[in-house]
Design a protein that fits this description.
about 60% helix
Length: about 260
Amino acid sequence: MRFRLDVWWYGVPLLLRGPLLAMTVVVAPDYPAVQCLGCQIILMTFMAVQIYNWPWKAPILNVVDMIVCFLLVILVAVAGFYVPAVTDGLKTFFELFNILALSGLLGLVGVMIIACVLALFYRAAIGSQSELKIMTVGKTPPPSQVASDLVRQIAALVSKSDEQMAAKLAKLGVYDLQALQLASSILQNEVVDATDAAEPKSKKSTSRITSEALAPAPKKKAEPEPPKLEPPKSKLAENDENDEDHGNKDPNKIQQAMV
């Protein structure tokens, strides 16, 4: 199979790309401007789907497919400069198309503004599980379900040796192995506590940083000030204080303290 197992369906739209490009000539044989517009829409749509899913099993094919679609879009855009200027009914068609595209753009911006306003009242961390569905673009799996699946899978892997695990992993594709490596890094840095780890953490295997790196630094506790030490009092001062407490001073005591 040429495609990744989680994008097995990509062969169907790939087969449709060629016929759709050819249909632009059939639908508008006398309007080259419409042909250029149709080719651009088709190529950019397929390029967006390809970049989002990265469907090919070999990484180099994904890069080549993206570059080819990008260059084809540029060629079609350049070819549009050699097309005669549109007039009459065709000009009205392009004006309506521009209005529709601008309306869709403004509508999308309006939706994001509303979502940002709602976020001010529905406070949640960016990208957290408690955000609105419109912000997460889909449903987030409950942590309890993910935890139970992980515990069950870990219990099944405990009995396997390193050689058996290596033989199983050797059958996986490049992207599956990278996904496992990323998942292992997330478990090691975010789930496993340092006190629970039987061995010290291994060297960093991915470019992902930990959530602790972005957390605000803890505030330092204010240290109590040391008690101020008063200088020792002379006998004269002590005698003066005692005399002040009694309301009189004894001249004999002052002479003795001075001696």
